[in-house]
């Protein structure tokens, strides 16, 4: 089996938020109605996260709309500073 290639940035800030909220990929995937492996692959940058999926995850994790880019678009935010 061929090794998967990361096509998108790994969402490390999102992983931290998941830990901070005391939840798991499994719980989030169940709420979204997708497989846990699919969610993991998306968070780890192997597949893209769609806009509606970002919205679902942000709602589940209580992410402020102004912080969505920080959690889901890290390459865009490298030069941006996160608002407090």
Automatic annotation (TrEMBL):
<dbReference type="GO" id="GO:0003677">
    <property type="term" value="F:DNA binding"/>
</dbReference>
<dbReference type="InterPro" id="IPR001387">
    <property type="entry name" value="Cro/C1-type_HTH"/>
</dbReference>
<dbReference type="InterPro" id="IPR010982">
    <property type="entry name" value="Lambda_DNA-bd_dom_sf"/>
</dbReference>
<protein>
    <recommendedName>
        <fullName>HTH cro/C1-type domain-containing protein</fullName>
    </recommendedName>
</protein>
<feature type="domain" description="HTH cro/C1-type">
    <location>
        <begin position="17"/>
        <end position="69"/>
    </location>
</feature>
<dbReference type="Pfam" id="PF13443">
    <property type="entry name" value="HTH_26"/>
</dbReference>
């Amino acid at each position: 089996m061929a090794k998967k290639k990361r096509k998108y940035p790994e969402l490390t800030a999102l992983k931290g938020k998941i830990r901070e909220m005391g939840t798991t990929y499994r719980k989030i995937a169940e709420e979204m109605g997708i497989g846990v492996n699919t969610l993991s692959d998306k968070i780890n940058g192997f597949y893209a996260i769609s806009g509606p999926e970002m919205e679902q995850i942000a709602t589940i994790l209580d992410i402020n709309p102004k912080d969505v880019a920080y959690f889901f678009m890290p390459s865009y935010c490298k030069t941006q500073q996160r608002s407090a």
